[in-house]
Design brief:
Elements lengths: L9 E5 L11 H17 L3 E5 L6 H4 L1 H5 L3 E3 L4 H4 L5 E4 L4 H7 L4 E4 L4 H4 L3 H4 L7 E4 L2 H13 L12 H11 L7
Parallel strand pairs: 1-2, 1-4, 2-3, 4-5, 5-6
């Protein structure tokens, strides 16, 4: 249903659920979302949105016509990550899987948490050479253009989803006593 071609790279946009999680006002959320969509649309590349489970598909489906984007409603982000070119995201635990898969992840810090230096929840995202925190739309646009000039992604033809294997392998060794 996504009609992806094996020789076409796509950008994965992991949509921030700021409004849905109630840490961002509705107006700010949609302004931020639209700004990122405009930047991604300028690339003229295939863009697939991955919505957080709290996001209502009907609220976002306008991007299909407006920007010619696709929204994955059958495949989870873990299924898409091995096949994307790179990821535009927010502070999200799924970015750790993207890093493990060596996918460049541009993390837009709309709340400017990373600038304070006191927010420990963002610190783990600085530990990977594949993650880069972005704090402005102009910088995001520049970083995306930089990624587009790099060698194209080789799409996986392996039917076994590597990201699912990573999650499974880590979960079987997970120790609740360390939490």
């Amino acid at each position: 249903y996504l009609e992806l071609k094996s020789n076409i790279n796509f950008i994965l946009y992991n949509v921030e659920p700021g409004w849905e999680h109630h840490y961002m006002e509705k107006k700010k959320h949609w302004k931020h979302f639209e700004q990122i969509c405009k930047i991604l649309h300028k690339t003229k590349k295939e863009v697939i949105l991955s919505l957080h489970p709290m996001c209502n598909y009907d609220h976002y489906k306008f991007v299909i016509k407006k920007y010619n984007f696709k929204i994955s409603d059958k495949f989870k982000i873990f299924d898409l990550l091995p096949h994307c070119w790179f990821v535009v995201s927010h502070f999200c635990t799924t970015n750790l899987i993207a890093n493990k898969l060596k996918k460049k992840t541009l993390l837009f810090d709309v709340s400017q948490l990373s600038l304070s230096g006191n927010d420990f929840s963002t610190q783990s995202f600085f530990r990977s050479k594949y993650s880069e925190v972005v704090t402005s739309y102009s910088i995001l646009e520049s970083k995306i253009q930089n990624e587009l000039t790099k060698k194209k992604n080789v799409l996986s033809k392996n039917p076994f989803l590597y990201s699912s294997k990573i999650i499974f392998d880590k979960s079987i060794n997970f120790n609740f006593n360390n939490v």
